[in-house]
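Q: Could you predict the 3D structure of 3-hydroxyacyl-[acyl-carrier-protein] dehydratase FabZ?
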Amino acid sequence: MRFSQLDRILELDKGASIKAVKCLSLSEEYLNDHFPRFPVMPGVLMLEAMFQASMWLVRESNDFEHSTVVLREAKSMKFQGFVQPGSSLVVDAEIKKVEDSITKLKVVGTIDGKASVSGRLTLESYNLADREGRDEAVDKYMIHQFRKFYRRLWAPIPA
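A: Sure. Here are the predicted structure tokens for 3-hydroxyacyl-[acyl-carrier-protein] dehydratase FabZ:
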């Protein structure tokens, strides 16, 4: 993952839900242009944060079985507020339906408890060896790399 739009996974209930956070800093390079006198997180990056949280939930729920998790559809997206530097976008994703390799989720991004963005996402999971005829080693390498990155975001405190 080249650009992570999440800083930390706060809660994860395998097969059910996830809560993650993105703390927006003025040092984010894209804020120089979006917008120069009113810097806000672009809506597409808010969507990306919700996708990434959903992706981690799907990966963990499937025990990292698939190397690839893609966004198939974003529906009923509502943008209701701005994410400005100094604020934290808290992303909640909840699995609503799983059919084979397709997972449908309800997602909400809040700032200080108020909805800033919400919608429904459909994700698809697969291995490249199954779809593109690639060597299984590519899938294994990708899964290994995703597991490493995941451990940086999610380190639950033992009870």
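Q: Anything worth pointing out?
A: Residues 43-61 form the longest helix (19 residues).
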